[in-house]
Design a protein that fits this description.
The protein is mostly helical. It contains 2 helices and no strands.
Length: 78
Amino acid sequence: MDISSVGGPSPVDMQASALSGMADAQNKMAAAAQKLTTAPATPEVVLDVSNAGVQFAASAEVLKTSQENTKKLLDVLA
């Protein structure tokens, strides 16, 4: 069975994208935390923290779903 003919990103691509999104969110959170150490919280910084949290959670969900789909594919191929 050739799964390369199925359209869409591969499971590895999806997992790499999810991990990249999580790393990006972590960097955004670190930058916002650095701003908070030097100045009082501004609406911009609060939004940066909130957005980084949402981005991390969404990327984690993509990673979880990708891993579940990979497991299902392996079960089918077994």
